[in-house]
Amino acid sequence: MSVALKVEGLNMAFGALPVTRDVTLTLERGARHALIGPNGAGKTTLVNLITGVLKPHSGSVILNGEDITAVSQAERARRGLARTFQINQLFRGLSVLENIGMSISERDGYANNLWRAVGTKRVILDEALDHLDSLRLVEDALKPVRELPYGRQRLVEIAIALAQKPRVLLLDEPAAGVPSSESHLILDAVAALDPDIAVLIIEHDMDVVFRFAREITVLVQGAVFTHGTPDEIMNNEQVKAVYLGQEGHRGGRHG
Amino acid sequence: MAASETIGTSRTEARERAAEYLVGRHRFRLAEALPWLAAIGVYFIFPERMTFGSQVLVMVMFALSLDLILGYAGIVTLGHAAFFGMGAYTVGLAAARLGWSEPISGLFAAAIVAGLVGFITGWFLLRYRGLTLLMLTLATAIMLQETGNLRSDISGGYDGLPGLTFKPLLGVFEYDLYGHTYYLYVLAVLVVVFYIVRRIVYSPFGQALTGIRENVRRMHAIGSPVHGRLVTVYTIAAAIAGVAGALFTQTNAYVTLTVFDFDNSAKVMVMLILGGTGRLYGAFVGATVYMVLEDYFSKLSPTFWQFGIGLMLVLAVLFTPRGVLGVFESIGKYFSERKKL
């Protein structure tokens, strides 16, 4: 099975306002797929529908060949679907190490244990440090997350998702709010992702999108406007008109 | 740069530091012996106040059970007295109606009954959070109280079940007028309960509870069965509160429906916040300070003693937002940082 994630005919509305209209999207194994679109196009809503935070009114989400439309958010995560958040969702009072350890122990079921002391399981410790190593966060391992600069917190956000060992990873504006002096940290991390993981990235920064993505889907007013390779999208006059022409949308804006 | 050096040379060092950091948190510290030594000291220094002492220890246990759900899992409840009451009535009714007056088996029965009520109500209520949960837990305690009131032929209503007698402890130690035996009995049970709570808090499960408190959205996103975890800890806390309630009935030799009072739920929360939440020993400090002051003020002025308690609470909230233990922590941090300079 080479299709990692398939979204079919997804529809969603908040009251009378349709936010997702008949969206169909396919992520092959190892995909590098960017989702772009103006603010309010429904990008984050789509991520919330795929991960199960929201329930679609119609349509289906298929992960590794299994229909997960009716499955809970946590169960989807356990089946290999991970995400990062546009606005950090971290365990701010805990150390970086514990943030990663939390993810690992939930993944492997260690968190069901009420009796063993935390920190005595070497496997978890080693794996957590490996993840931190790959994102160059080892030096910050024992610091509380809230004391880190924002750019580094964004890395922790990604590290938690990677510690889930996902097969599909949804990155919701990973570089949002990161000062340009630190954004290379995020870009390097994204570029170094395991080639086996299918990645869907939402990003406003076109430099990132064109550097990273092999496929681009443009979302406008909740519907797929067009879909293609970066070259096709770059040369699409209509896309330029609705999106790329609007310079105001560059940079880390919340959409 | 520096990061690449750490990968090769000091990888093992980083691992050791990380392990030490995590394990160091739950290693037994000498200061932890203090409350226990104090509890034993009280036995010898105030032999005539053992009944009061037992009541303090019971409230410590009750507050400890609340710390597990409020301090660690972040579940806000105003109905924790429901479980205290269920435990209190389990041993009360067993002794008065069934003639089952063996104290220790009574504790297990109380834990099971209260735990069961915790499991069932928790299953329904823990889908909610915040104010909704606050109201629902409050309503649960009131409903249980009114059920008892409705069947006052069994429960004894607000007159309660007076004059209960319990068998000697372990078949040997008789109940004495000054409550010496029961003080040691309650203390022994508290040691056991505390050990269990301490293990849970420092386990991966306890860590997951902290995660739920810190950021529940992320817990869902990393695949944590949040509802299941909350129901589990709620059940455990309910069982412990039930044991505290059972000890309350056994030490007082009577029980009335006032154990279900909103007052009781609110008081235990105040005690815990006063001592400091999410710290285990906050329950000790808070319950002791509250009850000793309550005792002192009520002797000072039998009519206006609540004013003293109220004033103390206002001062505590203003000056010790993280509880009495929080103040000690800040002082300790201040000195350790000065040493570094």
List keywords for this structure.
heterodimer; A: 255 residues; alpha/beta; Rossmann fold; 2 domains; 6-stranded mixed sheet; 4-stranded antiparallel sheet; 9 helices; 32% helix; globular; disordered C terminus; B: 341 residues; mainly alpha; 16 helices; 0% strand; disordered N terminus
Structure description:
Chain A is of the alpha/beta class and 255 residues long. Chain A is globular and about 55 Å long. Chain A has a six-stranded mixed sheet with strand order 6-7-8-3-9-10, with helices on both faces. In chain A, strands 2-1-4-5 form a four-stranded antiparallel sheet, with helices on one face. Chain A folds into two domains: 3-80 and 166-249, P-loop containing nucleotide triphosphate hydrolases (Rossmann fold, 3-Layer(aba) Sandwich), CATH 3.40.50; 92-159, no CATH class. In chain A, α3 (96-107) runs parallel beside α5 and α5 packs parallel to α6. Helices cover 32% and strands 24% of the residues of chain A. Chain A has helices spanning 43-51, 73-78, 96-107, 122-134, 150-162, 183-191, 206-212, 230-234, 237-244; strands at residues 3-14, 17-28, 32-36, 58-63, 66-67, 81-83, 168-172, 198-202, 215-220, 223-228. Chain B is mainly alpha-helical. Chain B has a domain at 32-260. Chain B has 16 helices and no strands. Chain B has helices at 2-8, 11-26, 33-45, 50-72, 81-97, 103-125, 130-150, 152-155, 180-201, 204-214, 216-221, 226-252, 262-275, 282-300, 305-319, 323-340. In chain B, α4 (50-72) runs parallel beside α9 (180-201), α4 (50-72) packs antiparallel against α12 (226-252) and α13 (262-275) crosses α14. Residues 1-7 of chain B have low confidence and may be disordered.
